[in-house]
Amino acid sequence: MPVTDQGGNPRLQTSLGSLLDRSGDTSGSHTLMKHMSMVPYAHQLSESRMSGRSGDTGKNKKRRKKRNPVTANLAGTRYEVVREMVEKNGFHVSRDDDPNSFLLWFDSFVSTEKISELKVFQRINHFPGMGEITRKDSLARNMAKMCKLHPDEYNFVPKTWILPADYSVLQNYAKDLKAKKKHRTFIVKPSTGAQGHGISLYKNAEKIPQSEHFIVQEYLDKPYLLDGYKFDLRIYVLMTSCDPLRIFLFNDGLVRLSTEKYIPPHDSNIDSLFMHLTNYSLNKHSENYEKDQNEDTGSKRTIRYLNEYLRKEDKDVAWLWKNISDVIIKTLIVAEPHILHAYRMCRPGQQAGSDSVCFEILGFDIFLDRKLKPWLLEINRSPSFGTDEALDYRIKSGLLEDTLRLLNVKASDKRKNLAAQKAESQKRLFQQPSRKSDIMDLSDLEKKKLSTERRKEELKGLLSRIRKDATREDFENRNCGRFRRIFPPDDKFHADKFTNLLTSAFSTFLSGKATTLTKEIERTYNNKLKIPSLVGTDLTEADILDMLAQCEADEKEGRIMPQSRQRGPAPLMGMPYSVPVEETEGTDTHESEEDEEGEDTDSGTHLQGRSRPVSGALQNGRTGSRPVSGRPTSGHQSRPPTQQKSPGTATRARSLSRPQSASNRLPNGIPVLEESVYSTAARDMEEDLTRKSLSLLNDMKIKFPGKTDEEAEWILDKIQENWKFHKPRIASYWLVKLDSIKRRKVIDIVRSNVRAVLQRTWKCPDVESLRLYRIFNRVFNRLLWSHGQGLWNCFGQSGNSWETIFSKSSDSISSTEMNCCRRIVQLCRDCLLIVYQFASDAKNLAQQSSSLNEETGSTKASPRALSSLEKRTQTWSPNQTVSQRVSRLYPHRMDSTQS
Ligand code: ADP
Which parts of this chain are annotated as the region Disordered (predicted)? Predict the structure, then answer.
């Protein structure tokens, strides 16, 4: 990732930043940053100005602020001007090791893990996925793709070749030029370079070495000149959100001049970097470099000055800036699919349109040619905030100040968000999921009521989003300072144009990768969802209020009484041993969120023949299956099976049965005939393979990183022994702390092991086609059911309630298959316990390292202390006594119990 530094500072921040990211330990770095700071103008800010700006006059207000400060963690930045502006905007600079600050600022990029860990009220100054446009080679690759689709729109990047892959294409291009007697110069740059390092120019493309990690560009040899010097622009852009995209353009920036008068490239001057490159970090070493005594002569000038200059030259400045803003928007449209995808992966569950935890100030380097056409040279995700000169300080402090104001961080965000989070988890625990099978059972009146309720919910969601958007927009308009919002644009023409490009970018960059997201974006940006923050919609708040009123009127007309059905999972109190889950109607027929994602296509099978007990398995043409010992289901006899059938049930019910097509084969190659002539030999073979699978599953041990089988067993024993202690912790870890993606990941550990076993036994790479695997999938989905309640129930008295997914199905399963399922449930339970132990070990380690720091008075854990801690939690010896082992694993708890 390029980190330009026009302040000319050593590029230490990249390694420092990644170090901080990796260890999560930011302590001690601030002192280092302080020493590295270089702010001759920062100190000019007088004390009085500083205090005046806080606007904190009233005593009460002061006290309140002291108690509840809006904090900023600046351990990751070395720029003093950032600190100053943060304080000026009323933030309280927190300790370097405070991970819960409202604002986190890093000079280098941040890991996706860090972004995932942020609380909703926090803000960090980088987006994930931005590398797709800030690395020179990635930018070239992505731009080439868009240019292919929209050559007239994406014509602002010089022709680029990525080495070594495009070397022969480049040579052919050069040959063509030669044949046509055309002359071009090429500029060769390191893919991840910055500050002009490693750049060279070539008149003859044949001489360009075929090196790795370089790009070659056609050299733009007709620059617009200022006083005879070549220059480029550093333009500052703020992105406040990617979901949806919001972009602001700062109305000032830097004009960076070369220090030798420009002459078109020629053998005699091709090596003169002071003539052809405009980097400040390079040109400041030239004896011709002029510090800004006044704005119209220095080697660094402001964009305001350039605008004036151009006006005097009778140039159309408005047209120029319209083109520049187009370049910026189109570039960020290329980045958006990558960023949004990465952001959604980091922040699962965050609603579109809610406040973004990420924001980013980008430095766009733009070149103007003789005709004032802007060309994109590169984008910097960590533009320098060095303030070597007065104009640097003026521009950058203003940029930071306006950015911080636009972020609109308030102390109340924390309270509000925590409350919202709590309400959301409560809602999740008590919510009443519904599935198609339940809806089928409803009367027409109930169905109508349900659909009206859903419509109302949708409209309320839309209304709240419209209001939120309006408030946000109003805030932005009043507080954008020197920023101007350039996306979403205000006019319909541009809105349509960019929407087109956006949808095209999504299908180009995410094709086959995130189909759901691509479809959602297409719908959203094509305005079918009528999301008002996206321009062009004519749906207003009043329209939605009308629609809501209509819904309520419908409700009254239909005289729909509130529903009294008690559905849904038992709440948290319903954890094992406290409230057993009752087998009431519908208890296990709720579709899991995972089901809704469509993984288990079998989820509807139990619609058919719900009243049939499992022992009826033989009736389904399965002579080889023995009935399962499972109990008959209660509460399902009230309706005759025929009444419970629904259109389409028959086809869905087939999903667990053996393949119907004569062309199908069993995975081991045995041809599968029509169900009626299903060969006994094939059935026996299938039964045999199922038995083998069971035996392998019984012997299977999941390998956990850094843990032997014995250690894993031992952990399980310890948790069982101390179940009372662990139970609430595991419940809160599984049901509350983990989100659906993480819960699925835990189950996927078992799933992938099971797949491997099936692949081996059935000698079949495509296990998805196996009936046994589809059965397992139903179990996995059941365990993830209702936000994990499915697996959690397995720890309690109702531990085998999941089995009813089969007892209600018309398609019965054999006892061997059921035993396989029982084994995988056990594996999932064990897996959760071990993963939980991993998580609590990590937590203990972190706590101990911080308490060690406090003891030693150090803010940073010494490597020795850390490694001893690691040893304490990781080493395990069978010769140790149990208490020794426990004290190693849980030192805190043992200490407190002993005392
Ligand atoms: P770096 O990240 O090392 O600064 P840039 O791509 O920004 O690399 O290039 C450095 C300088 O080289 C630019 O500021 C510009 O003056 C010059 N330059 C880069 N590419 C071109 C080009 N295609 N045509 C003309 N000048 C270029």
Answer: 1-31, 44-72, 555-669, 850-899
144 and 170 within one domain: no
Ligand 1: list residues with CB < 6 Å: 2, 4, 158, 187, 189, 193-197, 199, 217, 219-220, 232, 277-279, 365, 367, 377-378
> Of the candidates 124, 142, 167, which is a domain's last residue?
124
Within-domain flag for 208? yes
Per-residue pLDDT of 2-55, as tens digits, reads 333 333 333 323 222 332 233 333 333 333 333 333 333 333 333 333 333 344
* Sole residue written with tokens 């351990």: 75
Where is mean pLDDT largest: 35-44, 57-66, 715-724, 808-817? 715-724
pLDDT in tens, 300-309: 999 999 999 9
Domain residues for the domain of 365 are: 130-156+221-411
pLDDT for 564: 36
Ligand 1 centre from 195 Cα, in Å? 9
Q: Whose CA is nearest to atom 15 of ligand 1?
A: 277
Asked if residue 885 is part of any domain, the answer here is no
Dump pLDDT digits (tens) for 491-508. 888 988 998 899 889 889
* Average pLDDT over all residues of the chain: 74
This prediction's pTM: 0.58
Count the domains in the chain.
Answer: 4
- Do 268 and 185 have their domain in common? no
3-class secondary structure, 103: strand
Q: Which one of 279, 370, 380 would you pick to mutate in the ligand 1 pocket, going by the greatest count of ligand atoms within 8 A of its CB?
A: 279
Say if residue 314 is in the same domain as residue 387: yes
DSSP code per residue over 533-599: TSTT----HHHHHHHHHHHHHHHHHTTPPPP----S---GGGSTTTSPPP--TTTTTSPPHHHHTT-
Residues 299 and 325 both lie in one domain:
yes
Ligand 1 probe mutation, 260, 277, 362, most atoms within 8 A of CB: 277
> Alpha-carbon distance 435 to 431, whole Å?
13
Q: What is the CATH number of the domain that holds 134?
A: 3.30.470.20
Least confident of 9-18, 229-238, 800-809: 9-18
CA geometry: angle at 468 spanning 464 and 471, to 5°? 140
Same domain, 319 and 284: yes
435 occurs within a structural domain: no
- List alpha helices for 347-375, DSSP H: none
Q: Looking at ligand 1, which residue's alpha carbon is closest to its atom 20?
A: 377
287: which 2 tokens? Answer: 């004896």
How far is C-alpha 200 from the geometric centre of its chain's CA atoms? 38
Q: Is residue 665 a contact partner of residue 671, using CB atoms and an 8 Å limit?
A: yes
- Residues 322 and 389 placed together within one structural domain of the fold: yes
* Residue 235: half-sphere exposure toward Cβ, Cα within 13 Å: 28
Same domain, 304 and 186: no
pLDDT of residue 64: 55
Q: Are 359 and 104 in contact (CB under 8 A)?
A: no
Q: Identity (one letter) of the amino acid at 348?
A: P
pLDDT in tens, 852-898: 665 554 434 334 433 443 344 333 333 333 334 334 433 333 333 33
Atom 9 of ligand 1, residue of closest alpha carbon: 196
CA atoms within 13 A on the CB side of 118: 29
What dihedral angle (degrees, nearest 10) is formed by the CA atoms of 743, 749, 751, 757? -170
In a domain, 874, yes or no: no
Instruction: Kindly give the pairing relationship between strand 229-242 and strand 360-368.
Output: antiparallel
